[in-house]
Amino acid sequence: MRPSDVGILREALPYLHQFSGATFVIKIGGEIISHANMSALGEELAFLHRVGIRVVIVHGGGKQADDLLRRLGIEPKKVEGRRITDEATLEVAKMVFRGATNMELLSHLRRCGCVGVGLSGLDGRLITARRRPPVAVRDVETGRETEVDYGLVGDVVAVDVRVLATLLAAGFVPVVCSLGADESGAVLNINADTIASRIAALLRAEKLITLTNVGGVYRDLSDPQSRISHLSAREAEELITQGVVEGGMAPKLRGLIDALRDGVGRAHVIDGTRPDSLLVEVFTADGDGTMLTLADRLPDQGAPG
Questions:
Q1: DSSP 16-65
Q2: Residue 305 has pLDDT above 60, yes or no
Q3: 168: which residues sit within 8 A by CB, 6+ positions away?
Q4: β partners of residue 175
Q5: Residue 302 pLDDT exceeds 70
Q6: Domain boundaries defined on the chain
Q7: Residues 102-114: pLDDT tens digits?
Q8: Span 22-232+245-279: which CATH code?
Q9: Are 56 and 24 in contact (CB under 8 A)?
Q10: What integer is the mean pLDDT of 82-110?
Q11: What confidence tens digit (pLDDT) does each residue in 143-194 have?
Q12: Both ends of the chain: CA-CA distance in Å?
């Protein structure tokens, strides 16, 4: 073993002790599932599980759904990073989210010796939702408001994590796709970041980690040096209000902010396409993305977490 490896182990030891037995909810975007780094990421997820961290994975599949829709001659529609879901789009979402992407993640976990269980929000009444009514959306450039009907999209009404608690206690890794249902059983497409946020809060997770294809939150997306390593919930809200954070990142941050206010310890945005980004973020002081906390200041910049 090289001296540098010993140093890495020494740095990781406090974190390994702190997080043993803790729950991490990890949200994986569709762009990560189809990336070449997914195989290595599967090993990182399995490592977390092996060192005693209770891992719940929540995933989307937007990229894969868009690809299939276009192959079927249907152009995807989105407003402010959120998908408009008609009947054809929902059928594609069922095939992609609960089918292809869920099984892809389970395959990576199995290859790494980790036992995953695929779920949707319908399993064990995990996610109950109601269809979202038309909402007024303001155009950032013109300031005009237009009414948007998101179609067969659900807003979460209730979350029942008993099925997740049972699986975690038995040593499984739940892998949850972003579909739920209303009380009548009608299937609805639900934002995966919202699901991850609610699950993390109810499981009293130590961490909610969002894996995306950018290295965190930036003040200027064109400037890699403008990444913000730490944000408070208040500061994150200000960035959204000011338009510094927009598009698909805005709902991701809102979900993380909600989770922090509901009791989640810390939240993170990291680049899941970068090798070792997950382990670096969790087990080193400097990290590899953006960490969000409820407090404006960290108690100790060198503290684990």
A1: HHHHTT-EEEEEE-HHHHTSTTHHHHHHHHHHHHHTT-EEEEEE--HHHH
A2: no
A3: 23, 54, 56, 174, 203
A4: 57, 118
A5: no
A6: 22-232+245-279
A7: 999 999 999 999 9
A8: 3.40.1160.10
A9: yes
A10: 95
A11: 788 889 999 999 999 999 999 999 999 999 999 999 999 999 999 999 999 9
A12: 26
Whether residue 26 contacts residue 45, with contact meaning beta carbons closer than 8 Å, is answered with: yes
Give residue-wise pLDDT tens across range 245-276.
877 788 889 999 999 999 999 999 999 999 99
CA distance 56 to 50: 14
The residue whose two tokens read 């809060």 is 201
What the block records as the tokens of 32 is: 């990560």
* CB of 162 closer than 8 Å to CB of 128: no
Residues ≥6 apart with Cβ < 8 Å to 280? 286, 287, 288
Contacts of 14 (CB under 8 A, 6+ apart): 304
Give per-residue burial for 244-255: e unless 16+ CB within 10 Å, then b: bbeebbbbbbbb
> Do residues 64 and 96 touch, judged by C-beta distance below 8 A?
yes
> What is the C-alpha separation between 291 and 145, in angstroms, rounded?
33
The overall average pLDDT reported for the chain is: 90
| DSSP 8-state assignment for residue 220 | S
The amino acid that residue 275 corresponds to is P
What number is the average pLDDT over the span 55-69?
Answer: 95
